[in-house]
Write a structure and sequence with these properties.
158 residues; alpha/beta; Rossmann fold; 5-stranded parallel beta sheet; 6 helices
Length: 158
Amino acid sequence: MTGTDIWQVYLSGEIHSDWRQRIRDGVAAAGLPITLSAPVTDHATSDDAGVRILGSEDKPFWHDNKGARLNAIRTRTLIDKADVVVVRFGEKYRQWNAAFDAGYAAALGKAVITLHDNSLAHALKEVDAAALAVAETPEQVVQALCYAITGELSAPRA
């Protein structure tokens, strides 16, 4: 991959904060050649996609299972296409799906950047050990992407 290629970056994980927008804004401000993708971040849409498209289920397990499988089509496809996978872990909810995405990406040999507060470092030590970078802020993610793409420590201006 050269500096003129368009990099594919998948943003996995926590959906209750503005971290994705901060990365989008930073990538745009730096003029980085990146296409960002993500899972469906509307919780109700994601949870109900399976039953809304494929039919209702009486048991909650099968309702969730149907949605998870349908969402996996998007997630796996976008991770497969990604050059870099950024996985955000937040404080409010446990993101088991994010941990799965990090493991899936690592198993595929994808470059993984984890993003979380230092308070989660112990709980995520195995996930972080598989990552190539561990960031605490979205701005650090943008700086890491800039360095990986341009080889420079300061972001270019758009």
